[in-house]
Specification:
alpha/beta
Length: about 290
C-alpha cells in the first residue's frame, strides 16, 4: 500500500507497535466490517511523521498512542497510519511503544464501561470476568483506581497475577460457580457473553448493572434483567480522546500498567491471531513494526 497522506485534522503516524484484539480476529474471520473487507488493527503507538492542515495538538516527532476511528477501520497493522489527531494522546514516557500499543482498546473499553456507562463510585463492588485477559486485567486496575472493591474470575494458575493487579478476591471459574458464591455486586463487566450474562445477573444487588462487551445478541439480556429489578447493557467502545487522556493520567500516576503476554513482529500477525484465538493469554499480544 502507498504511504497515506494526512488529511484535514489528521496526523501521519509511523507505527512502532500495534495491539492485537479479539475484534481483529472477528473481522478477519467474518470477512470484514458490515460486509466490507477492512485493514486490521485499531491499537497504535508510534511517532508523528507529518501533520495535516489544521492540526494544533501535535508536531512531527511527538510520540502518540490511541485507538483511531473505532468502530470504523483504522488499519494499524501497518508501517504508517493516517489518524484523526483527536483520536490520539501523547504516549506516557514511562511506557515502551509495545506497552502503549497494548492499552488503547482494552483501556478505553474498561474506562467507558466502568465510568461512562456504570458510573462506578468508591466503595462499590465490581465483578470482572476474564480478569487476567486483555480487557479484564486493565479493568481490575481501573476499578481499583475508582475506589471499588473488585472480584475477578480467572483460572487458578492466574490467581496470583489477578491479585497483583489489586483484585480483592479471585474466583476459579473452573471449580466454583461464581453465580452461587459472589453476591451484592453493583457492576459486572462481561467480555465473554453467552450464559455468563444471565448467571451474572444473579450476583447483582437490586438495581445493579451488567455491562456486556460480547456481541449485540447480549442486548436480549436487557429485558431479562429488567424483570428481575436489575439492568443490563451491551456496549461498543468508541474512539475517545478524553478517555485516552484519562488512561494516560492513570499510567503516569502508577495506577495502570499493561501486561504483555507475547510480542511478535508484524510479519507474524497470523501467529499472533492463532495465539489470541486460544483465549489463554495473560494480558495482551502486541505486534511490533
Amino acid at each position: 500500500m502507498a504511504t497515506p497522506e494526512p488529511g484535514f485534522a489528521q496526523v501521519l503516524v509511523r507505527v512502532h507497535a500495534a495491539g492485537v484484539n479479539p475484534t481483529d480476529f472477528w473481522h478477519r474471520a467474518g470477512g470484514g466490517l458490515q460486509g466490507r473487507i477492512v485493514p486490521l488493527g485499531w491499537d497504535v503507538s508510534g511517532v508523528v511523521e507529518a501533520v495535516g492542515p489544521g492540526v494544533t495538538l501535535f508536531a512531527p516527532g511527538d510520540e502518540v498512542f490511541g485507538m483511531p476511528r473505532q468502530p470504523e477501520p483504522a488499519g494499524t497493522y501497518a508501517e504508517y497510519v493516517a489518524a484523526p489527531a483527536r483520536h490520539l494522546a501523547r504516549k506516557p514516557p514511562g511506557l515502551s511503544h509495545a506497552e502503549a500499543a497494548a492499552l488503547p482498546l482494552v483501556s478505553l473499553t474498561a474506562w467507558q464501561a466502568l465510568v461512562d456507562v456504570a458510573g462506578v463510585r468508591p466503595g462499590q463492588r465490581v465483578l470482572v470476568h476474564a480478569a487476567a485477559g486483555g480487557v479484564g486485567h486493565v479493568a481490575v486496575q481501573i476499578a481499583k483506581a475508582l475506589g471499588a472493591q473488585v472480584v475477578g474470575t480467572a483460572s487458578a494458575a492466574k490467581h496470583a497475577f489477578v491479585r497483583s493487579l489489586g483484585a480483592d478476591r479471585v474466583v476459579d471459574y473452573t471449580t466454583e460457580d461464581f453465580a452461587e458464591t459472589v453476591s451484592d455486586v453493583d457492576v459486572v463487566l462481561d467480555p465473554i457473553g453467552g450464559e455468563y450474562g444471565p448467571r451474572s445477573l444473579r450476583t447483582l444487588r437490586p438495581g445493579g448493572l451488567v455491562v456486556s462487551l460480547a456481541s449485540p445478541a447480549e442486548a436480549a439480556l436487557t429485558a431479562v434483567a429488567a424483570a428481575q429489578g436489575r439492568r443490563a447493557m451491551f456496549m461498543v467502545v468508541e474512539a475517545d480522546r478524553a478517555g485516552m487522556l484519562a488512561i494516560a493520567d492513570l499510567v503516569e500516576r502508577g495506577l495502570l500498567k499493561p501486561t504483555l503476554d507475547t510480542v511478535l513482529p508484524l510479519a507474524q500477525a497470523a501467529e499472533a491471531h492463532e495465539l489470541g484465538e486460544r483465549r489463554s493469554a495473560t494480558g495482551k499480544i502486541v505486534l511490533t513494526v
